[in-house]
Structures are given as C-alpha cells and as structure tokens.
Fold each of these.
Amino acid sequence: MLNRYQFRISFVLGLILLTAVGCGTRTTLRGSIVGTIVDSQTGIGVAGASVLTSPSTATVMTDINGNFSIPDVQPGVYTVTSNATDYNSNSVTVTIDSGLTATTQLVLVSMGGSFARNILPIFMVNCSMVGCHDDGTAASGLRLNSYVNVMKGSRYGAVIYPYDAQSSKLVRRIKGIETPRMPKNRPALSTSDQGLIANWINGGARNN
C-alpha cells in the first residue's frame, strides 16, 4: 500500500502529467474558401461555373456575379479548380489556416463561345435588325445576319480574322479604334458584348 507521502507524490505527478497533456492539445478550427471566377477578356464574373477542390471538400457553383464560397474546410493546402461552358478550366493553390478564410480569384480563358448562341444575337439586335447590315441595306456590302455573311465580309474584304481579334476590322470598329464606330449612330456595345465577340474570334471564329 502507498503511504501518505507516496500518495501525495503520485497525486502531484498526475496533475503535472494532465496539465502537460492539456497544454499540448490545440483546437483546430475549420476555415473557408471564397473567391470569384472572371472572364480573361472582359474581367466580368462568370456565372454558373463549377468550383471544386483537391483534396475534395465540396463542389459549388458561382452566382450571377461569378462569386463562390466553400465553407467548413479543414486547415491545409488545396487546389481549387473551376470549369465553365465554353471556357478552358483553370486551377490555383490556396492555404487554409485554422479558423480563417482564404480568398482567391480564378481567370478563365474563353474557348470562343457559340456563334449561334452568343454572337449572332448581338449582331442581329445591334446591326442587322436596325437597318444597317441586313439583306436590304448591307452598308458597305456587309451583312451581319448569318455566319456565312459575317465571314464573307464587306466589299472591301474580310472584317474578321480568325484567332486575331486585335487585327479584325469589325472589332476595331466596335471598339472605336477605327472610324466610323459600329454600331453607327447608336450606343456602343457593352464591354461584355465586345468581349464575347473578341473571344469568339480569338477562339477561331467557329460556326458553332
């Protein structure tokens, strides 16, 4: 049996051991990842892009402004990857510290978009349907009401050079680099629409 002195020594040693173990225990708090997915050409957020991580946490979608949030993430290093229709995927590495939020931005490069879905509606509303570049008027011989006519160009030659938006005469007119600006006597195209057209041309000006 332990005598009173031995019992006291054992009790004190036990307290020291418990204190040491308690001091060595650190509570790990979960963090989060927030960010924005943007278009490389326009800088505008990409809505409906998927965002996932490796190691896997959760897969989320961006909102209308391209923002996303992944909550309840264990501390560590993660690869964040985003994918969106008509865009090349992109990834970035983030580090989550205990209880903190990592903020990031991923830039997606368009694969050109769809002529029928993204480009033709811009031409129809701003150029063809207003009587400038339809079958009836065709200013300078340029009709912007079908893929064939767009690629045919004007009486002065091609207005679109696939894979080279910067040199394409149509883009230079739309941006006001050359005059007269297009659309003529109408408000300039939005930055978003200009970016869509440039992306489509840089992607090869495909008939898709």
Amino acid sequence: MEITNEVKQRIVAAIAADRENYPSDNRHATALGIAPSVYNAIKRGNYEKQVSDANWVGIARRLGVQLRTEMPWLAAQTPTYVFVSKQLEVCQGSGLSAILCDMPNIGKTFTAKAYVKQHKHAVYVDCSQVKTKLKLIRYIAKEFGVTSNGRYSDVYEDLVAYLRTIDTPLVILDEAGDLQYEAFLELKALWNATERCCGWYMMGADGLKEKINRAIEGKKVGYTEMFSRYGDSYSKVTPDDAQEREKFLKAQAAIVAKINAPDGADIAKIVHSTGGGLRRVYTEIEKLRRVQA
C-alpha cells in the first residue's frame, strides 16, 4: 500500500513523542526496528526516497499509529484506568511485581499502552504475539533498544545488563496466559537477574489465574516461585457480585462515552446497547460519528 504524506506526518509526530522514552537516537532506532541512517533521515525530514513503505508500516505498527484516518479518542479516568495506572507507577518506581487478573474488555490493555507512552523506560508486551521463550526475550530486548539479533544467550545477557543499568525500567506482560511453559520459566530467571532493578506487571483474564493455580496445584516446576515473586496474590478491579459488577461496567462505559461521544449523543442509549463493554462503546461512537460526517 502507498503511505500518504498525511500518514507519514502522523508517524513522524509519534516518533518524536516516543523519543522521550529512550536515552539515545540509536536505542530508539533499534526499538523501532530501523537502521540509524533511516532514523536520521526521518529526523531531518529527508525521507521521501530514503524510507521505504515497509519501514513506515513497521514503525506505525510499533507506535500504534493507524494507517487509515482514525477517530480521535480521549483516555477517560475510569476506575480501571486509575487503578491500573497506580499499580504500574508503584511497580515501576519501586522495582516491584504484580499480577492483574480480571475480566476482558474493561480497559486493561488501553491503560497499559497509554502508560507506556507517558513513562520512560516502560515497555508493553502482547504475549499472545510472542508466546515462545526466544520470541519473548528478543521482543523485550528490542523494545528497550537492545540489539535483539545474534545468539540468544548474548541477547539475554545484554538485556539483563541494560535493565540493571537504567533507572526504574518496567515490563508490562499483557495476555500472559498465552505464554508457553519455557517462556514462564525464563521470566522467572529474568526476574531473578533484575531483582529490585526492574518492575514487572503481568495482566490477563481469569484464564491466567486458572493456569497459574492449576500449575501450582500440580507442582509444576517454577510456578510457585514465580507466583511468589509477583506478590503471591492477584489484583482485581471489578466487583465479585454480579449486580455490582454490572453497575461498575456500565458506569465505566458512561465515563468513556461522555468524553468521546459526539455532542447531543444519548449516553444512556450507548451504555445500554453495549452492556458496559468498552470495545462496543468505541464501535457505537464510531457509528454515530459516521452518521454525522
């Protein structure tokens, strides 16, 4: 596909904003998956012939820039957003670890991605895309701007050395229940190697909790130790009671809809039609904006 100038400008703006999270241009270029020469060309604005469309697509994917015109979306201070953000701040600031297990579609992922954009030395990992040990560690290394090619042992050691060097790094592991067993064991090893130097935050739905509990009950090697390192407990945002949970979800949906829906939109109708699911809220508001366009 052809990348338009408007899209390129949005990608360049995202690169400039993301640069604040890295100590050098070279680290940032490595994290973006491009050569330093390409990075410098973009920085100088001289990218018409030097940056391929494949590079643009890769950078856009890494920074979450939509290649099509995207609907403006504001982050709402929902209970989930506030709770998760606070936990992430504590983990990063103190080199602690925690696990959040809660129902899907409440804003966990959105909050984590927003946090990473606003905080230096914090990276977000979608574990469903890097399920194996090798892919996971190489991906984390790349996100921090550490060279992820070459021998795995070198990548691992370079990553450990870097995490022990920089100030308050944080790794957010979303969809952690998708990780293979070897990847879980490697996370334990990485935690040991970076104890008190790096914060770790694992997120998932109820399946993650069941997976860990089942492994511990079955005395599967490594899980008891790993759970201990992550605080021996699971965090949760939503209420346990079904009726209270429904109220909670609809209240969140209303908060999000109020600041993102077009003027004059029926907020109660949006909340009712979505049942409190935040992805549905986005879809319904997108429909309303199309009608108004």
